[in-house]
């Protein structure tokens, strides 16, 4: 189970890092033309950059505390943050009637919930 939790956390971290860095460096006008990213035209550039920074921090929070063994309890806390982030993403895609994006986001939400449950419960880093 520990290996499955590491794999899920690593996959989530990779997705969040790629998405977050993209939001930080790609101009908002260009991002709005990308597939399933039309919602970016409806938000401010500052919000988009903030969301990118939150995603990058979430990616780091899913992996770095456990790898460095510095406050590993932050891993499930970061996973809960990712769950909340994915709930917001799902709601946004539902409002825009983007069914495929909702399904993908639901998968990420399930992975994050699994990591939170596993790291708070049976495979906790503390105890």
Question: How would you describe the overall organization of this protein?
Answer:
The chain is built from five helices and no strands. The two termini are 17 Å apart. It has one domain. By secondary structure, the chain is an all-alpha fold. Helix 1 (2-25) packs across helix 5 and helix 3 (45-68) packs antiparallel against helix 4. The radius of gyration is 15 Å and the shape is globular. Helix content is 76%, strand content 0%.
Rg, alpha carbons: 15 Å
Helical fraction equals over 70%
Gap between N and C termini: 17 Å
Task: Note the overall shape.
Answer: globular
Written as H for each helix and E for each strand, in order along the chain, the element string is HHHHH
**Count of separate structural domains:** 1
How many E-type strands?
0
SS-based class: mainly alpha
Low-confidence stretches: none
Number of helices: 5
Biggest sheet details: none
In a nutshell, what does this entry contain?
It is a multi-pass membrane protein. The protein has helices at 2-25, 28-31, 45-68, 74-95, 99-120. The protein is an all-alpha fold and 127 residues long.
Secondary structure topology:
Blueprint: H1 2-25, H2 28-31, H3 45-68, H4 74-95, H5 99-120
Helix pairs in contact: 1-3, 1-5, 3-4, 4-5
List keywords for this structure.
globular, 127 residues, 5 helices, mainly alpha
